[in-house]
Design goal:
It is built from seven helices and 13 strands. It is α+β, with helices and mostly antiparallel strands and about 400 residues long. The protein starts with a helix and ends with a strand.
């Protein structure tokens, strides 16, 4: 990460903190919060561009280094091939083989170098982390609770005549949000020969793999909590059902900060919607082209696309249809993730398990642990449902 990227990240955090401040307390200022979020999206777009340039430079440097290694190996292979070919010639070629060919090592195949690149190539994969959308609270104890003021309808004061009795009014009511942290972990084994002999950075590969395991764990826990606490699914049916969920069910308390979460099938359905005169309802956000927004009447709502592998389609659709999940609302208000211990990684060449003895088998074990709990924070902030497509 270069200095420009670090500076942009710091500015993004500052702007996000201001946006949150505008949304807290009794005197919320949604307009200023939206302005700060627009500024945040602009900074994020600039950061994403800087990141692409930075990663392209790194990839170019790695490609040059790989080419140098490949060229050196090719020269070594060519020298070895010439030697093997000469040895084969001195020993005499097979009498029944009169022609030279690449298919036979002794008849010329030794002179043809193999095209071998040891740099690991990664298949493109779609990834989404729901941790960035929920409320993440670092904690220092295994269990605890948070005090939440209950939502209630206030009626205001009543008229009182001179010398009349003043009536009693309701006071604020509170509830608690309990959490109980659990441990999630796994270990990975790799031989020391592979660590020593491989041209690839196996440790970096494993570290990236472990980080993605943590992402998948977070997603599974968050989606499982949503499925449990919002178990009654809403059949949105069509775009009108989505509008109703935003305008009435979520209302002005959550509509301005809501987003629509769906999978690849849901994105495809949204991408084919138009306003009746051919204009698409799904468009990129002008301030952040990588972000899609759905036009729902006078409202535009961000779209968060979770790969179908992480957010699969639901069962129960009629024959010939697909039941596609649509989760609508403010995820930060709806779900809390209590993080007792951010993912930690330890490695050892002397540790032992029931199956592996690292010292005895000349291996290295890498252990990853995270401790967290995911709980529903406000069930009114989310509508869990589907559309049969």
């Amino acid at each position: 990460m270069n200095e420009q990227m670090k500076d942009l990240l710091a500015r993004m955090e500052s702007v996000m903190a201001l946006a949150k401040d505008y949304m807290e307390g009794e005197n919320k200022d949604i307009e200023k919060a939206n302005e700060k979020m627009d500024e945040y999206n602009t900074l994020k777009a600039e950061y994403d561009t800087q990141k692409r340039i930075y990663e392209a430079d790194k990839a170019e440097a790695a490609e040059k280094a790989d080419k140098q290694i490949a060229d050196r190996k090719a020269k070594d292979q060519e020298a070895e091939a010439v030697k093997k070919f000469a040895d084969a010639a001195r020993a005499g070629f097979p009498r029944n083989q009169k022609d030279m060919s690449e298919g036979s090592d002794a008849d010329g195949g030794y002179t043809v170098p193999e095209d071998i690149v040891t740099r690991i190539e990664h298949l493109r994969d779609a990834k989404y982390s729901l941790r960035q959308d929920v409320t993440v609270t670092p904690v220092k104890t295994k269990s605890g609770r948070r005090t939440i003021k209950q939502r209630s309808q206030q009626t205001g004061f009543t008229s009182v005549a001179e010398a009349g009795k003043i009536g009693k009014k309701n006071t604020p009511q509170y509830t608690v949000l309990n959490y109980d942290v659990e441990k999630y972990a796994g270990y990975f084994a790799v031989t020391d020969e592979l660590l020593e002999d491989s041209d690839a950075n196996i440790t970096a590969e494993l570290t990236a793999w472990i980080a993605d395991e943590a992402r998948v764990t977070d997603n599974k826990l968050i989606l499982a909590e949503i499925a449990a606490e919002w178990s009654t699914l809403t059949d949105f049916k069509d775009i009108k059902g989505i509008k109703t969920a935003l305008n009435k069910t979520l209302g002005q308390a959550f509509k301005p900060t809501s987003a629509i979460y769906t999978n690849d099938d849901g994105l495809n359905w949204l991408d084919n919607l138009d306003d009746g005169v051919g204009r698409p309802l799904l468009n990129p956000d002008p301030t952040a082209p990588a972000t899609l927004r759905l036009r729902c009447g006078a409202t535009t709502v961000p779209i968060r696309v979770i790969p179908t592998t992480d957010l699969p389609n639901l069962t129960g659709a009629a024959s010939g249809k697909t039941r596609v999940p649509f989760i609508i609302g403010d995820m930060k208000e709806a779900v809390s993730l209590f993080d007792r211990k951010q993912i930690t990684i330890k490695s050892s060449d002397v540790a032992a398990t029931t199956a592996i003895n690292a010292f005895e088998q000349d291996m290295t074990l890498m252990r990853a642990i995270e401790r967290l709990d995911v709980v529903a924070r406000d069930t009114a902030a989310l509508v869990n449902g589907y559309i049969d497509i």
